[in-house]
Amino acid sequence: MTRSNTKLALAAGILAVMAGQLAVVPGAAAEGNSALEEGKKLAFSRKKGNCLACHMIEGGTSPGNVGPPLIAMKARYPDRAKLRAQIWDASQANPDTAMVLFGRYQVLTEKEIDKVVDFIWSL
Amino acid sequence: MNKVIKSLVALALAGGVTMTAQASPEQDRAAFVKYYKDRFPEVPMEEYPNGVYAIDKVGRENWEAIEEFPPYEPFIDSGQEMWEKPFANGKTYKDCFPDGPAIAAKYPHWDKKKGMVVTLPLALNECRKANGEKPLKYKKGPINDLLAYIAYESRGQKIDVKIPEDDPRALEAYEKGKKFYFTRRGQLNFSCASCHLQNAGMRVRTEILSPSLGHVTHWPTYRSKWGTVGTLHRRFTGCNKNIRAKPFKAQGEQYRNLEYFLTYMSNGLKLNGPGSRK
């Protein structure tokens, strides 16, 4: 499996350098879009974003419903910066929010947030 | 509905004299109960001691099946043995608690002489120490057996926590407990209220969040996750850890005051311990 992943990633050209690292992560490079895959992994991981704890997201299992389903995000957030701001510090939009303040409380790093935002924006 | 949370939060965080003048504990309790009644109009008050199973129909079926052969039963039996077995000095728990073993509804209470909230586990250990016995640990182990026996014998008693007016420190302890309940903490920045008030009934992953009303009626509780019975303060510790907050000490001032506040909120509900949960 590792070998075929590597092959796929090599085929992806520009992503070839990253793919070397990603190939060891099962499934990561398999869909060929490894940056988005990385964002997805961060979003789904219980130790990292754990967005599924509260949001229904396509492709994720046993989602909670404390927050709204994350669908049609580009239509609803034409401005990527607004989406990033929501994820970075949800208390700006709603001071009583029950969402984790991922950036402000450094639950995720700035880089990780960028990846998560890319993934969520693709939904 | 949101207004009630906001006013409760505001009350909790406003601090100072004006707050105590504005909202008596009885007003707090009325607001608390009304909030849940509005949120779960179909749930009768006497269901709240059943925790999440008051609002989770699927979970309830499993739970009812488990309760037919209660996993906490052996702990009640060994608790009874502990209760009856004399200490090295020949005395027993009964000498400390003449009304025992059905004494759970007397706790927590404000102890004017000590100037603190006294909980049942604390009182049990004081009895042990007074009789030259080592105190028991507060989260795991044999204290749960003793508590299970006392809880079982106390089933059906009504919670009736008082905040005596002849000692202003009692109200202070209550207010501290209330503040604790509403204060966000930990890296994930949640308060107890974020989950068990604001989002009661919602799902975090597959777990439905229970209302705080009734949270204190059924301890100790057998959790399948623990594989044994544990104390209320062990549960507090778990919820604090889940939000990546440093837990406080079991039976330390913070958790005792929190228990005082939460138990006051459940005044009028009937004790139904020991409990079983996932």
Automatic annotation (TrEMBL), chain B:
Cofactor note: Binds 1 heme group per subunit. Binds 2 heme groups per subunit.
Top-level taxon of the source organism: Bacteria
Annotated binding of substrate, by residue: 235
UniProt keyword Oxidoreductase present: no
Residues the record lists as binding heme c 1: 96, 127
Annotated residues for binding of heme c 2: 192, 195-196, 239
Reaction catalysed by this enzyme: S-sulfanyl-L-cysteinyl-[SoxY protein] + thiosulfate + 2 Fe(III)-[cytochrome c] = S-(2-sulfodisulfanyl)-L-cysteinyl-[SoxY protein] + 2 Fe(II)-[cytochrome c] + 2 H(+); L-cysteinyl-[SoxY protein] + thiosulfate + 2 Fe(III)-[cytochrome c] = S-sulfosulfanyl-L-cysteinyl-[SoxY protein] + 2 Fe(II)-[cytochrome c] + 2 H(+)
Alphabetical keyword list: Electron transport, Heme, Iron, Metal-binding, Periplasm, Signal, Transferase, Transport
Annotated Gene Ontology cellular component terms: cytochrome complex; periplasmic space
Pfam family, one: SoxA-TsdA_cyt-c
Annotated family: Belongs to the SoxA family.
Function: C-type monoheme cytochrome, which is part of the SoxAX cytochrome complex involved in sulfur oxidation. The SoxAX complex catalyzes the formation of a heterodisulfide bond between the conserved cysteine residue on a sulfur carrier SoxYZ complex subunit SoxY and thiosulfate or other inorganic sulfur substrates. This leads to the intermediary formation of conspicuous sulfur globules inside of the cells.
Name of the protein in its database record: SoxAX cytochrome complex subunit A
Organism: Sedimenticola thiotaurini
